[in-house]
From TrEMBL:
Protein known as: Probable lipid kinase YegS-like
E.C. designation(s): 2.7.1.-
Annotated binding of ATP, by residue: T40, G66, D67, G68, T69, I70, N71, E72, T95
Cofactor annotation: Mg(2+); Ca(2+)
Gene this chain is encoded by: yegS
Highest taxon of the lineage: Bacteria
SUPFAM superfamilies in the record: NAD kinase/diacylglycerol kinase-like (SSF111331)
Length: 299
């Protein structure tokens, strides 16, 4: 693999002590592959390392972490001029890894690292909210948002993706719908939403397939709204027979406008954003991402 150009791995500090990763990086270096590694401490570090990646002239920036880390790296890459933007590689080291899982990135660290360095780069879309905050995977509102943003770190560490579901069930009594209006190209809906998923990718919250038909290179966002005033009946029919549920509204558009008169919170790949108005628009083909050849998220 010596002929492959240099990469910079931005590693979420939570995973810095992973021995298997250290071995995988050492092995590749012994084979002559140039991999720089930088470790984050808090939000914002990944963006600073993108500046360093640019100065080093690497061809690939690898996001080593969960959905939040991938999102932070992708968002910072967008800020670079097109011609100088390195490709994005993904090393899944988070709790849920929703984007990596649905994109078919291998779970084995050595295989994922190899794909991130030498895989074929494909142009993928990125979504931008209110002209500044981006997400690569999904924006979730309502029930899902409160679960993912409130699930304690210790529960996540102990149980992984299932922790989101368990924490959500425990909190059922306190979950209320969000009153809002959602508009897109040929799409309009107004009412009480229990869950809203606006997906460039397909799943969030540790495996919940909110936008099962989403593709990351089709120039479209998918929306799924689980409607209703009472969570339990809506959730039960929706979980058991999603195709037949009267509580599901689906749509697609290159952009969505959401107005929530009482305010609501969207979770953008793990980062909460609160407000009364959200304009979500796609940046088509904005990033080159190294993905498996049979990636189910590509058309
Ligand atoms: N050294 C560190 N220790 C703890 N948290 C960190 C560190 N470095 C960055 N972070 C935080 O980690 C968050 C991103 O975590 P990420 O989403 O990648 O992992 P996760 O929550 O385990 O994964 P997932 O979203 O797939 O469940 C950012 O909000 C950032 O502030």
């Amino acid at each position: 693999m010596a002929k492959y150009p240099a990469s910079l791995l931005i590693l979420n500090g939570k995973s810095a002590g992973d021995d298997l990763l250290r071995q995988a990086v050492s092995l590749l270096r012994e084979e002559g592959v140039a991999i720089h590694v930088r470790v984050t401490w808090e939000k914002g570090d990944a963006a600073r390392y993108i500046d360093e990646a640019h100065a080093l002239g690497v061809e690939t920036v690898i996001a080593g972490g969960g959905d939040g880390t991938i999102n932070e790296v992708a968002t910072a890459l967008i800020a670079l001029p097109d011609a100088q933007r390195p490709a994005l590689g993904i090393l899944p080291l988070g709790t849920a890894n929703d984007f990596a899982t649905s994109a078919g990135i291998p779970e084995a660290l050595d295989k994922a690292l190899q794909l991130a360095i030498v895989g074929k780069a494909t142009a993928i879309d990125i979504a931008r909210v209110n002209d500044k905050t981006c997400f690569i995977n999904m924006a979730t509102g309502g029930f899902g948002t409160r679960i993912t943003s409130e699930t304690p770190e210790k529960l996540k560490a102990a149980l992984g993706g299932v922790s989101y579901l368990i924490h959500g069930l425990v909190r059922l009594d306190t979950l209320k719908p969000d009153q809002c209006e959602i508009t897109g190209e040929d799409f309009h809906w107004q009412g009480n939403a229990l869950v809203i998923g606006i997906g460039n990718g397909r799943q969030a919250g540790g495996g919940q397939q909110l936008c099962p038909d989403a593709l990351i290179n089709d120039g479209q966002l998918q929306v799924r709204i689980i409607t209703g005033d009472e969570l339990l009946p809506a959730l039960l029919t929706t979980l058991t027979k999603p195709e037949e549920s009267p509580h599901i509204v689906d749509g697609q558009s290159a952009w969505f406008d959401i107005t929530a008169p009482h305010g609501m919170t969207f979770n953008l790949d793990g980062e909460p954003l609160s407000g009364e108005h959200f304009r979500i628009a796609l940046l088509p083909g904005a990033i080159q991402c190294r993905l498996p050849p049979d990636c189910p998220l590509l058309r």
